[in-house]
Amino acid sequence: MNQERMYKVLLGAHISEKATVAVEKANEFTFRVLKDATRPEIKQAVEGIYGVTVKNVSVLNVKGKVKRNARGQSKKPSWKKAYVRLEDGQDIDFSSATN
Hints:
Elements: H1 3-9, E1 10-13, H2 17-26, E2 28-33, H3 39-50, E3 54-62, E4 66-69, E5 72-75, E6 79-86
Antiparallel strand pairs: 1-2, 2-6, 3-6, 4-5
């Protein structure tokens, strides 16, 4: 995978209460990724950008929610989330990443 694609695959870290618990319990980080990203691409991107060893990658398609407002309904866009589990002893420091 070329350098440009590697930086486009990861859209950013997904921070939530569930993601924080996953980091503490299983050393598993959560990222928003492109909808067409594959597991090997995500693994290669995380290892290349953050310099860590990835144990496994799980992906999840998040469906967009339908919201109501005064003018009717609108739909939020769907997106893809990746749970990346790191090897024991590995950690990602988001403040020092060259992203």
